[in-house]
C-alpha cells in the first residue's frame, strides 16, 4: 500500500470497470487515502464524470492531515517542504511511514493532484482560506458545513440546569487538560462539569479528579446518544477547549441544535463557528484562567446564557439543518456539472 499511495493501476482498472457497468451523473469523493489513491480522479476524468471532493482534513498537504504537531499549529509541509514530516515523524510517529507519506505529498504537489476535482467542498470559511493558501484554485472551492438532525424540536420543553458539559475524546489535542485545570481552580469548585467520552488521558483525568478531590467534576464515559443530547440541552453551555484546528466540530452544531451556547477556544474552526457574545464565548486557547472567567461570567449571568442558547438554536435552523445542507449540496453538484461541460 505504501508503495502506491499516489497511484494504483489496479484501483484505476476496477473503477473503470465499475463506471462502465452503471450510469453516473456525478462522483462525490470523501477520502482517497490510503487505499483509493488519486487514481479515482483519472478514472472519473477519463469517463467524463464531474467530480466533487469534500475536504475533511489536510491530507494533500500534511503528513498527519491535521496541521498539528507537538500541541501546536504547524504549516511546515504545505508552506516549506514535506521533508519536515520525516524529520518530525509526523505520520503515526513512524520514520518509515513518514518517509512514504513524504513521497506521497511531494507527488501530490508536483503533479497538482489537489486541482483535479471540479469542485472542492470546504466545511468552513477558515478551512477554505487555508486550502486556497496551499494552492487549490479559489473558483473550485465551495463552503458547505456539515449538518445534524434536529435535537430540540420542542423548545418550550427545554429546562436549563446549573452545570456545564464537555462531550468528546479525552486526549491532548482536545484541550482536556486545560478544561480540568480550569475547573480545579478554587473559584470554580462550586461549578459543576459533566464529562462524556473516553480516550488516552482518561486514567490521568480520573487520577487528577481523585487526588484533588474535584467533586464538581463528574466523569460519565460513553453513554447513549439520547442521554448525552438531553443532558446537553439542559446545560448552561457546552465547553469546547480544543487546541487543534478541528475540521468541523459536530459537537458544536449539535449543541446549537439543542439550544445550548458554546464556550470554546479562540482558534481554528471554533473561532469561525461561534459568534462572540451571540452564540457563545471564546477564550484564549490553552488558558485555563481565561476559560474559568468565561465560565463564571455565564454561570453568574444565566439569562444571558439562555439568550445565547436561543441565538445558537436560530443559527442551527439557518445553517445546519438537513434541508439547508441538501439545497447547498445540490447547488454545488450543478456547478460541478456545468464546470465539467
UniProtKB/TrEMBL annotation:
Protein name per the record: Glycosyltransferase family 1 protein
Span of domain Glycosyltransferase subfamily 4-like N-terminal: 12-147
InterPro entries in the cross-refs: Glyco_trans_1, Glyco_trans_4-like_N, Glycosyltransferase_grp1
Protein keywords: Transferase
Keyword Transferase appears in the UniProt entry: yes
GO molecular function ontology, one term from the record: glycosyltransferase activity
Any Pfam family matching the protein: Glyco_transf_4
UniProt domain Glycosyl transferase family: residue ranges: 153-314
